[in-house]
Design a protein that fits this description.
Blueprint (H helix, E strand, L loop, with lengths): L5 E8 L11 E9 L15 E8 L5 E8 L1
Antiparallel strand pairs: 1-2, 1-3, 3-4
Amino acid sequence: TTTDYADSVVEYSTIEPGQAGEYNLSKSNSDKVLNHRIYLNNLTPATLYYLRTKSTNLNGETVVSTSEFT
């Protein structure tokens, strides 16, 4: 969720951040929305993924967050 209408980008990988090839997979939605939802398909069970999300609002301001999940 964002406070301004913004697009949605998810970059993800099994490669640890700071290594070559980090965040080498991505999905995006250019629609400007407040509530963001992107589905990731074909993930490998019991595998650690590193995730970076980006949203850019109508003023060109970008918010980035990172996390990891299994």
